Amino acid sequence: MQNWLASLPDIIKAIADEPEGKRYFYPIRHGTMRVGIYAPQGTDPQQPHDQDELYIVESGSGVFLNGDERRQFKPGDVIFVPAGAVHRFEDFSDDFRTWVVFWGLQGGEA
Q1: Banded model confidence at residue 4, pLDDT cuts 50, 70, 90
Q2: Is the dihedral of CA 106, 87, 35, 24 positive or negative?
Q3: What does the alpha-carbon distance between residue 9 and residue 73 come to, in Å, rounded to a whole number?
Q4: Would you state the CATH architecture of domain 8-103?
Q5: Strands 78-81 and 69-73
Q6: pTM for the complete prediction?
Q7: Where are the domains of the chain?
Q8: Are residues 52 and 80 in contact, defined by beta-carbon separation less than 8 angstroms?
Q9: CA 89 to CA 2: how far, in whole Å?
């Protein structure tokens, strides 16, 4: 059976068990969709992704770059990034963690 329930403490433990530098874990996957936690440390090395994505900030704060625009973020904020867009978290606090949801076909939805 596929995972359909994920607890934050279990995901945080799974991230801690990952090799050095891997700061994400996706316990729920279905078709093109995957859901998990992303918790970069120090810097965010992301490159543009092939799918649309949502971030739901769980803890921490900072600045988010989405294309040419920068905005402050805090817990509870939801951030949409279209497929292929340059994006990253900047100047974020040490306790920063966000849920991330990827879905759809490569290139995103029109």
Answers
A1: confident
A2: positive
A3: 23
A4: Sandwich (2.60)
A5: unpaired
A6: 0.86
A7: 8-103
A8: yes
A9: 30
State how far the Cα of 110 lies from the Cα of 107, in Å rounded to an integer: 9
Tracing tokens 């920063």 back to the chain, one arrives at 96
Q: Please tell me the total number of residues recorded for the chain in this structure.
A: 110
Q: Which string of DSSP letters, residue by residue, matches 33-101? A: EEEEEE---SS------SSEEEEEEEE--EEEEETTEEEEE-TT-EEEE-TT--EEEES--TT-EEEEE
Q: Which two tokens stand for residue 97?
A: 């963690």
Neighbours of 15 (CB within 10 A): 17
The pLDDT of residue 21 is above 70: no
Mean pLDDT, residues 23-33: 88
53 backbone dihedrals φ, ψ, rounded to 5°? -150, 155
9's tokens: 């403490």
Q: Which of 5, 12, 28 is nearest to 97 (CA)?
A: 12
